[in-house]
C-alpha cells in the first residue's frame, strides 16, 4: 500500500514506526491479552502507560519539578475558557493577537473578566506576529499568546518581556518541533494532533504554584476545567483518551530516539527553509507571512489566483500529496511540515511546485 505525502494541518502525519508499533500491539498489549483500546484507565497497565508518557515528555522539554503535566480532552479550544477560569485571579489579563487562534482565545477570555488587547497584527491581515510596545501592566494576571499561528503561518520566536507577569501560550502547532525554555512560561498547552499524537488529547504544562491558587470563578468553573482538580486526579478525573495518551507516549519516545528537540528543530528548519527559498525565488508563488516571522511548521503561500490555487491543490493530490489547501478563511495553499513529514516529502513538493510553475508561467 502506497502512503501519501501528508501535509495536513491537523490531524497530521504521524511517524510510521509509531503506527507500526501500535499496530503490532493492537490486539495484545505486552501480553495483557487485550488492546489498550479495551483497557481500564484504572488498570496497572494503563497507569504505567500514563506515567511513562509523562516521564518522556518531562525529559524532552527538561520540565522542572515545580510543574505538572496534564493530559486532557476538549482540544485547545476548550482551554480558551480554561485559561481565564483558572488563571484570572483578579479578573484582568492581557492578550497578544497574532492570528485566528489567539483572536478566538481573546474573545473567549472576555466572557470571564477584562481582557486587554496588548498588541494585534490584524490590521496587516496577520502577516506578522504582534509585539508589545512599552512596559506590561504588572497587575495583569497573565499575558497570553498563540506562539505559532497555523492559519497564517507565523511564529513568535522571542517571547515578550513581561516582568513578573506569567506568560501563557498555546503552542499546539509547534509542540515538540524545537526546544523551548519551559521556565519562561507560567503555563503552556497544545492539542496533540499536529506533532504529539492523534486528535483528542490536549497536553498542559503548568507551574504548580498556579495550580494551588483558586480559580478566578470557583463558583462557576466546572471541575472538568479545574486544573487543580485534574492534577490531583493525575488526569483521571474522568475516563481520558487512553489510546491517544498511549500513542502520545510513543511519539514522545520517537522524538527522543531521533535526537531530541534540538535535532528535531534543526531538521524542521532545514525542511522549511528549503520550501521558503523555493517560494521566494519563484515568480508564481507569494508567501503570505513576513520572512522574519515565518513558522517552523506551516508555510502559507498563494499564486494570487483562486483558480490556479485550486488547480495546484488538485494536481498535488494526483501526485500523492494531500492536505495542501489553505485554511478556509485565508485561501491559497498551506504546507504543514510537522515532525513526521519527511525531507523527501518536502523535496517532492518543491519538485511539483517547479513543474506547476513551468506549466503555468
Looking at this protein, list some descriptive labels.
alpha/beta; 10 helices; 16% strand; 361 residues
Question: Any overview of this molecule?
Answer:
It is built from ten helices and 14 strands. Helix content is 36%, strand content 16%. Helix 1 packs across helix 7 (242-257), helix 2 packs across helix 7 and helix 3 (75-87) packs across helix 4 (100-109). The longest helix is centred in the last third of the chain and has 22 residues, at 260-281. It has 361 residues and is of the alpha/beta class.
Note the beta-strand portion: 15-25%
Q: What's the number of extended β-strand segments?
A: 14
Helical percentage: 25-40%
- What is the general shape? globular
Low-confidence spans = none
Distance between the termini: 35 Å
Task: Provide mean pLDDT, rounded.
Answer: 96
N to C succession of SSEs: EHHEHEHEEEEEEEHHHHEEHEEH
Q: How many strands, which pairing sense, and closed or not: the largest β-sheet? A: 7 strands, mixed
> Multimeric state of these chains?
single chain
Cα-atom Rg, whole angstroms?
21 Å
| Sequence of strands across the biggest β-sheet | 2-10-9-8-5-3-4
Structural class: alpha/beta
Q: Treating each run of at least 4 consecutive H or I residues as one helix, how many helices?
A: 10
Amino acid at each position: 500500500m502506497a502512503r501519501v505525502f501528508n501535509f495536513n494541518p491537523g490531524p497530521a502525519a504521524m511517524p510510521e514506526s509509531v503506527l507500526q508499533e501500535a499496530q503490532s500491539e493492537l490486539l495484545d498489549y505486552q501480553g495483557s491479552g487485550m488492546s489498550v483500546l479495551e483497557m481500564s484507565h484504572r488498570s496497572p497497565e494503563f497507569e504505567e502507560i500514563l506515567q511513562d508518557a509523562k516521564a518522556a515528555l518531562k525529559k524532552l522539554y527538561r520540565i522542572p519539578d515545580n510543574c505538572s503535566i496534564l493530559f486532557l480532552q476538549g482540544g485547545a479550544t476548550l482551554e480558551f475558557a480554561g485559561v481565564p477560569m483558572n488563571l484570572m485571579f483578579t479578573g484582568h489579563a492581557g492578550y497578544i493577537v497574532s492570528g485566528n487562534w489567539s483572536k478566538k482565545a481573546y474573545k473567549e477570555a472576555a466572557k470571564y473578566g477584562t481582557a486587554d488587547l496588548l498588541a494585534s497584527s490584524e490590521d496587516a491581515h496577520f502577516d506578522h506576529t504582534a509585539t508589545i510596545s512599552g512596559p506590561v501592566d504588572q497587575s495583569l494576571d497573565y499575558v497570553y499568546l498563540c506562539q505559532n499561528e497555523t492559519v497564517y503561518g507565523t511564529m513568535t520566536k522571542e517571547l515578550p518581556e513581561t516582568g513578573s507577569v506569567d506568560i501563557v501560550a498555546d503552542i499546539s502547532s509547534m509542540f515538540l518541533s524545537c526546544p523551548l525554555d519551559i521556565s519562561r512560561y507560567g503555563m503552556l498547552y497544545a492539542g496533540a494532533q499536529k506533532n504529539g499524537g492523534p486528535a483528542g488529547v490536549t497536553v498542559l504544562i503548568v507551574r504548580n504554584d498556579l495550580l494551588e491558587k483558586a480559580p478566578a470563578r470557583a463558583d462557576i468553573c466546572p471541575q472538568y476545567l479545574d486544573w487543580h482538580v485534574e492534577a490531583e486526579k493525575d488526569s483521571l478525573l474522568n475516563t481520558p483518551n487512553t489510546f491517544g495518551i498511549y500513542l502520545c507516549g510513543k511519539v514522545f519516545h520517537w522524538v527522543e530516539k531521533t535526537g531530541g528537540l534540538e535535532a528535531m528543530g534543526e531538521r524542521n528548519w532545514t525542511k522549511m527553509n528549503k520550501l521558503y527559498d523555493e517560494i521566494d525565488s519563484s515568480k508564481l508563488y507569494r508567501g503570505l507571512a513576513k520572512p522574519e516571522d515565518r513558522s517552523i511548521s506551516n508555510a502559507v503561500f498563494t499564486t494570487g489566483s483562486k483558480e490556479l490555487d485550486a488547480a495546484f491543490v488538485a494536481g498535488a493530490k494526483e501526485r500523492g500529496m494531500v492536505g495542501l489547501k489553505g485554511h478556509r478563511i485565508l485561501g491559497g495553499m498551506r504546507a504543514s511540515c510537522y515532525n513526521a513529514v519527511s525531507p523527501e516529502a518536502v523535496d517532492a513538493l518543491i519538485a511539483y511546485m517547479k513543474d506547476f510553475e513551468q506549466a503555468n508561467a
